[in-house]
TrEMBL record:
Entry protein name: LysR family transcriptional regulator
Record-annotated membrane-spanning stretches: none
InterPro entries cross-referenced by the UniProt entry: Molybdate_resp_trans_reg, WH-like_DNA-bd_sf, WH_DNA-bd_sf
Organism from which the protein derives: Halovulum dunhuangense
Length: 103
């Protein structure tokens, strides 16, 4: 339903106001970006992204209130997981072949 790529896409839409621009920034086609938006909009209780067609005023997209909430919860979850796993991540990092050159 939501993972790092989709969360980054939501961030990009929030930042650019455009599904196409957010997708381009991630080296993703508009078709792929739109497909991911449709998946997210269908998976939750309401749409995460609202879009308007182009025309004289131009089109655009933004996150709904639900979209903002879902993204905020997801980012909070990422932060909590990173904090909880910092020691384990550090232990794996220390086992890398070039760990000394990274420090």
């Amino acid at each position: 339903m939501l993972g790092p790529g989709k969360a980054d896409l939501l961030d990009g839409i929030r930042r650019t106001g455009s599904i196409a621009a957010a997708g381009r920034a991630m080296s993703m086609s508009y078709k792929r970006a739109w497909s991911l938006v449709e998946e997210m909009n269908a998976a939750f209780r309401g749409p995460l992204v609202r879009s308007s067609r182009g025309g004289a005023k131009g089109g655009g997209a933004d996150l709904t209130e639900l979209g903002e909430a879902v993204l905020r919860h997801y980012r909070d979850l990422e932060d909590a997981a990173a904090s909880a796993c910092a020691d384990r991540i550090g232990a794996i990092h220390a086992l890398l072949r070039d760990a000394e050159s990274r420090d």
